[in-house]
Design goal:
The complex is a heterodimer of chains A (718) and B (483).
Chain A (H helix, E strand, L loop, with lengths): L4 H22 L10 H5 L1 H4 L1 H15 L4 H4 L2 H29 L7 H23 L7 H27 L3 H4 L15 H13 L18 H6 L16 H7 L18 H12 L16 H9 L17 H7 L4 E5 L7 E5 L8 H4 L8 E5 L10 H4 L7 E3 L21 E3 L7 H5 L9 E3 L7 H10 L4 E3 L16 E2 L5 E2 L3 E3 L1 E2 L6 E5 L11 E2 L4 E3 L3 E8 L9 E7 L6 E4 L31 E3 L4 E22 L10 E7 L5 E8 L10 E22 L17 E8 L1
Parallel strand pairs in A: 2-3, 3-4, 4-5, 5-6, 6-7, 9-16
Antiparallel strand pairs in A: 1-2, 8-11, 10-14, 12-13, 12-15, 15-16, 17-19, 18-23, 19-22, 19-23, 20-21, 20-22
Helix pairs in contact in A: 1-6, 4-6, 4-8, 6-7, 7-8, 10-13, 13-14
Chain B lengths: L1 H9 L3 H19 L28 E7 L13 H5 L7 H4 L23 E4 L4 E4 L3 H5 L4 E8 L5 H10 L9 H9 L9 E7 L24 E3 L17 H22 L2 H24 L6 H7 L9 H13 L4 E7 L7 H25 L6 E6 L3 E6 L10 E4 L3 E6 L7 E3 L1 E2 L6 E3 L2 E2 H11 L9 E3 L2 E3 L15
Parallel strand pairs in B: 1-7, 1-8, 4-12, 4-15, 5-6, 5-7
Antiparallel strand pairs in B: 2-3, 4-11, 8-11, 9-10, 13-14, 16-17
Helix pairs in contact in B: 8-9, 11-12
The chains are: A alpha/beta (718), B alpha/beta (483).
């Protein structure tokens, strides 16, 4: 078989098609060797050939079945040749393009569109080439194919151009650019004032239109003013024509901008006024103004943030084995990222630290860019070695033992930009040496012996350096102390109770009262070690400390209950729903809150509360206290009557005392009430307590006529 | 014509077929030369991260002040005067646009708009609006970046919280802290890379569960370690009485030998993880007491954080502890403060909640700054979703409630290479929908990982036959908030 040029080309085309499919299929896994990269980079040049050739071939293909041309041999052969060359070249171009796309900087949806439309050109035109002699391939198909290919060519070309020249390349020349200028580079007039004019005034006051003969396009014409005179007198915003027009009522004919145009914002008006007040300077930068100057603050909100410069490292990487050897549990060394030669070192644990921890790092002195020695007993002489870490950017010496003598070693570090000395004993003269370090950008001096004045002085000496003094209490806005706490949560006691009052803040004074009165910083007792109480007491305590607001008073109740019965029983049953754990609730030393569902309360409604208690040894009893609840809206009232009976045994009970409660008023508040029943002391071994509920709620109550509840929680016997 | 027919026939003979086939195969072979490591296999193929960042990180550590229960954006950082003007009027249907509500208010007969009970003012150079409930946060406004356009997919607490913490609403994936521990390793080998601190306010609360700090399918060394407020901050860390450190060491060495034997036998990597955990616990025995001792903090610090910072278990104490842990190289400190679920009684409860957290949150920023650590520590403050602009239940002049609202809410971030003093994103004038720069939870995760030098698309783990990411199949880095 004779190998013709055409045959060879067809084979090449076939191979390229397969190659492209392969490249697409494995996609991300490919990385193009550097010696093949020039081939990829030829893509933007070569691509022009297939565009032209294919365009032409498709045009001819479109008319191929026209009667006049079907017999033209030249026409037919020429079209075939042209098409084959075009398709082959487009396949070559696609391969090159796929190579190029693997290089840095190509990504995103534009690339995807370009890639897939480009690939479709090759496939569609290849299919056309191979099927155009088949019997089913007729005029309509030829026309459709040709149109489709040409469309693909146009779309691919468009996305390709966007990739090379960027979005809006064609129109960019006539479109305004809207990139925010960073604050640190902005000039007040050029970057703040002029843009306001541009946006709000220029449409009428430009070179062509110049309404009222006023042009606001540049400084010179702006200063000239219009036919009504100059716009302003520098330094005197109050007589400025510009501001007058802006401040006129919107409906006024002379108000600017006219009612129909977009208006100035309040911020913009303030900016213009402040700028005129500050002599309408044309050259001043925003950062030349004091930090809290209103014009600077307002301008900053319109400008972009400071642009940070990425750090790059040009030194060689350290020996991996050395890094590995020096890495241990208390000294962690790691690379900044996967490809960076720069190393960070953190040293931990005060108790284990030895100066060798730094000395041993010498082999890495070129690579260490960040060193954290926070809270370690690092001494001034240790800084000598650190002074050799030539590429050090960041050094943390917070709460170390550095006193300042060693700071001189750091002056030679040309890249040092952040130094933290908070919590050290450094002084003014030692820190002053650092002001000369040009690279230094941030210095923290919180909690050092330097006063605010000294820090301000240092700040003045070095403009580019940000010195952070941190939070220091100036005594002007004292903070309120929190309330004292108790060391115990016992609130019911027998005989006596020893209490410890605690406060988390060191050096506070705690004053307290036991008579229910509000503690006072002068008259009330001063707490010392402990408080002993031996009767039912309300303890109120308050914390005081110089430089702080005193705490709110905190109040604790303690209840004495000297006797516990040996056995106890209800004579009448409590309500089924609120019987809780029965009689033991009465003497469990636990007090309930207003929630009746916590199991700490026992409720009676159908019956009176009647309980009987027995004591193996007779007790000299003089009072009985019931802890009961009042919540009028919830039908819970105090007992109407409490009877206390005592004697030797069940059959020998004598009435010791009766107390009565009045029907509560309509708006009586909720309360937990201790009902005291006191009587002549008497020796008893059996005690009966009866608490009768109100049998009918009054007329004003929503439950009028129904029985009220009695809720009881605890009984204290003294 | 005859030639054409002949050629057509030739197209189907065996020689033609084989030569074409060899051409095709040849091109594939040629192409395969372009794939490096085709036959060697790479580290990434094995699915293991290198333990160092993909690119130079801005942040080295994260402190996440999670406000559990979802604080209302409308009483904190998203100022909507319109709601006050339209107090009591019906939420326009065009704004709600038929979007889903929770079962708690879906059957409400009306949706009366309710404005913030608290006033707002502008602060700092950034002129950001902050409510009167957060006076201390207002003072550090130029150090923080407020995002007012967060949105999430879940509408109830548990799935929303789980989504924020693990990137999925069902609780079987590793938590953010676990992913970081996996991707970056621990900085200080004496402390866990991921710790958790809990506190509770007086407001209506929602639970937190240990699934929120789980290692999921990752190795168990990446699990969050909870520090509690009691006498022992880390449970079971102390040696039992009568056992000294030397004995403990001997015991651990023997135990490690036994574990090594069983590893040889079974090859389960969890055995190695266990040995590492024992060793870490041994080192923590000396490291933890030093860190959790707050008695040596200077007076200024106590005034800065507020005196509650000395009461264990409060949010303030946890903030102070978080600073200490972070300062000592803990990669991810996760705080949860419960009690932000104000379905009712909002003005009252929210004031209490804000009082609990405001001073200490701001103090943390100031404190990190004065130690030169803010630029390398990323602080995040926010809840799992926002709250509705209409009142849940009865509404009076000074009392109302707000239901869950996942479509638009506010969080703030500070330090760690996040632009300070900016407000990002915008909601409509009803505070209901986002109108500018939406930030999805996946985007938030992608951004946090990016700040730590990790590509969220590359940090993967192969489990149950597919690769998992914190951002699963979505997420884009929000470049506009990055320095």
């Amino acid at each position: 078989m004779k190998i013709t040029l055409k045959g060879f080309t067809e084979n090449a085309l076939f191979a390229l098609n397969i190659f492209i499919i392969f490249l697409l299929a494995v996609g991300d896994k490919i990385s193009v060797p550097y010696w093949l990269q020039p081939l990829g980079r030829l893509h933007p040049m070569v691509l022009h050939f297939p565009i032209v050739l294919l365009m032409l071939a498709m045009l001819l293909e479109f008319f191929r079945f026209k009667e006049a041309y079907t017999g033209e041999k030249l026409y037919q052969n020429f079209t075939t040749g042209l098409l084959l060359t075009g398709v082959l070249l487009s396949a070559v171009t696609v391969v090159m393009g796929l190579f190029l796309s693997k290089e840095e900087g190509y990504s995103g949806s534009t690339l995807q569109w370009h890639k897939w439309t480009g690939v479709s050109i090759v496939f569609i035109s290849s299919i056309i080439y191979w099927s155009r002699n088949s019997s089913w391939y007729k005029a309509p198909l030829a026309k459709a194919g040709a149109v489709l290919t040409i469309l693909c060519l146009i779309v691919t070309g468009h996305y390709g151009a966007t990739l090379t020249h960027g979005d809006n390349f064609v129109l960019a020349a006539v479109m305004p650019v809207k990139e925010k200028v960073p604050v640190d580079k902005a000039v007040i007039f050029d970057d703040v004032i002029l843009p306001i004019f541009n946006e709000k005034c220029l449409s009428c006051h430009n070179l062509e239109k110049a309404k009222g003969s006023l042009i606001l396009a540049d400084a010179k014409s702006m200063l000239k003013g219009g036919k009504n005179g100059k716009l302003f007198v520098p330094g005197k915003p109050e007589i400025s024509l510009l501001l007058e027009r802006i401040h006129l009522p919107v409906d006024d004919k002379k108000h600017m901008p006219p009612k129909s145009k977009s208006q100035l914002t309040n911020e913009e008006i303030s900016i213009l006024a402040l700028w005129i007040k500050g002599n309408a300077d044309l050259k001043k930068k925003v950062v030349d103004l004091p930090k809290n100057d209103s014009l600077r603050v307002l301008s900053a909100s319109l400008l972009g943030p400071v642009v940070a410069v990425e750090e790059s490292y040009d030194f060689s990487a350290a020996d991996e084995a050395t890094v590995k050897k020096l890495n241990n549990n208390y000294r962690v060394i790691y690379a900044l990222d996967k490809i960076s030669p720069a190393l960070e070192v953190n040293v931990y644990n005060r108790s284990i630290y030895k100066p060798e921890a730094i000395k041993e790092l010498t082999p890495l002195k070129k690579q260490i860019v960040s060193l954290n020695l926070n809270n370690l007993p690092v001494k001034d002489e240790d800084l000598k070695i650190i002074g050799e870490f030539e590429n050090l950017r960041k050094l943390n010496l917070n709460f170390s033992d550095v006193k300042g003598g060693g700071l001189k070693y750091l002056v030679s570090l040309n890249h040092l930009n952040t130094l933290s000395l908070s919590g050290t004993k450094v002084n003014f003269s030692a820190v002053k040496q650092l002001v000369g370090v040009k690279s230094l950008k941030e210095l923290t001096l919180w909690n050092t012996s330097l006063s605010q004045i000294e820090i301000a002085q240092l700040q003045k000496m070095s403009k580019g350096l940000n010195i952070i003094g941190g939070f220091k209490d100036d005594g002007k806005s004292p903070v309120k102390l929190n309330q004292p706490r108790l060391s115990t949560d016992v609130s019911i006691f027998k005989n006596s109770l020893v209490l410890q009052v605690k406060h988390p803040v060191n050096g506070v004074q705690i004053r307290y009262t036991t008579d229910g009165s509000e503690p006072d910083s002068l008259k009330s007792s001063l707490y010392d070690k402990q408080i002993v109480i031996n009767e039912t007491t309300i303890l109120k305590a308050k914390a005081y400390k110089a430089g702080w607001f005193s705490s709110d008073a905190v109040s604790f109740n303690f209840y004495q209950s000297n006797y516990k019965p040996d056995s106890i029983a209800f004579l009448l049953q409590p309500n089924e729903k609120y019987k809780s754990d029965g009689t033991k609730i009465l003497v469990d030393n636990q007090l309930g809150d207003f929630d009746i569902n916590t199991g700490k309360w026992i409720g009676f409604r159908e019956n009176n509360m009647e309980t009987i208690m027995f004591f193996k040894q007779p007790i000299p009893l003089k009072s009985v206290t019931l802890n009961v609840m009042r919540q009028v809206s919830a039908y819970i009232l105090l007992p109407q009557e409490v009877e206390v009976w005592g004697g030797v045994d069940k059959k020998d009970l004598h009435l010791l005392k009766i107390i009565k409660n009045q029907m509560p008023l309509k708006d009586e508040g909720n309360a937990l009430v201790k009902l005291d029943v006191k009587f002549e002391p008497r020796s008893i071994s059996c005690l009966k307590i009866v608490a009768k509920n109100f049998k009918k709620l009054p007329q004003w109550h929503p439950g009028k006529g129904e029985p009220a509840w009695v809720f009881i929680d605890e009984v204290f016997l003294n | 014509m005859e030639k054409n027919i002949l050629e057509h026939g030739l197209n189907f003979n065996r020689r033609r077929f084989l030569s074409k086939l060899s051409l095709g195969l040849g091109s594939v072979a040629l192409g395969s030369l372009l794939i490096p490591d085709l036959f060697t296999g790479s580290l990434e193929e094995a699915g293991l991260p290198a333990g160092i960042p993909d690119f130079a990180p801005k942040a080295k550590r994260v402190i996440y002040l999670f406000q559990n229960g979802a604080p209302s954006q409308l009483e904190s950082f998203d100022y909507k005067p319109k709601l006050r003007e339209m107090m009591g009027q019906e939420l326009p249907a065009s704004i709600r646009a038929g979007q889903r509500l929770t079962g708690m208010t879906a059957n409400q007969s009306s949706f009366p708009l309710v404005g913030s009970y608290y006033d707002f003012k502008q602060y700092g150079v950034s002129r950001a609006w902050i409510s009167d409930l957060f006076p201390h946060t207002a003072k550090v406004v130029d150090d923080i970046c407020i995002i007012r356009s967060m949105f999430t997919e879940a509408i109830n607490h548990d799935p929303a919280l789980t989504f924020f913490q693990t990137g999925a609403q069902q609780g079987n994936r590793p938590s953010m802290g676990a992913w970081l521990s996996y991707g970056l390793g621990s900085e200080n080998k004496n402390l866990p890379a991921f710790t958790v601190l809990l506190s509770r306010g007086k407001g209506n609360g929602q639970g937190v569960y240990s699934k929120l700090w789980t290692n999921g399918f990752l190795d168990s060394t990446h699990q969050g370690v909870q520090f509690s407020s009691g006498e022992d901050p880390v449970l079971y860390l102390k040696d039992p009485e009568g056992l000294n450190r030397f004995e403990r060491r001997k015991m651990l060495d023997k135990l490690a030998e036994l574990n090594e034997m069983s590893y040889q036998e079974f090859g389960d990597p969890e055995i190695n993880a266990k040995v590492q955990q024992y060793e870490m616990a041994y080192r923590m025995q000396t490291a933890v007491p030093e860190i959790t001792d707050l008695s040596k903090e200077p007076d200024d610090i106590i005034k800065l954080y507020g005196p509650d910072c000395l009461v264990p278990g409060t949010f303030a104490a946890n903030c102070l502890l978080a600073r200490k842990l972070s300062e000592n190289g803990v990669r991810f400190v996760q705080l949860y403060h419960q009690g932000w679920d104000q379905h009712g009684n909002l003005p009252n409860e929210m004031a209490g909640q804000a009082k609990d957290v405001d001073q200490a949150s701001a103090a943390l920023i100031t404190d990190l700054k004065q130690r030169g650590l803010l630029d390398e520590t990323l602080v995040i403050w926010g809840g799992e979703f926002g709250r509705t602009n209409y009142s849940q239940g009865a509404m009076t002049k000074d009392n109302y409630g707000r239901d869950h609202h996942p479509r638009c809410f506010s969080i703030w971030m500070a330090g760690g290479g996040i632009k300070p003093g900016i407000v990002y994103g915008e909601s409509d004038e009803f505070g209901y929908n986002i109108v500018k720069d939406p930030v999805h939870v996946n985007d938030f995760h992608a951004t946090v990982l990016h700040q730590l030098g990790l590509n969220h698309e590359k940090l993967t783990f192969k489990h149950l036959g597919r690769r998992y990411r914190l951002t699963d199949v979505a997420g884009k880095v929000i470049n506009d908030i990055i320095v």
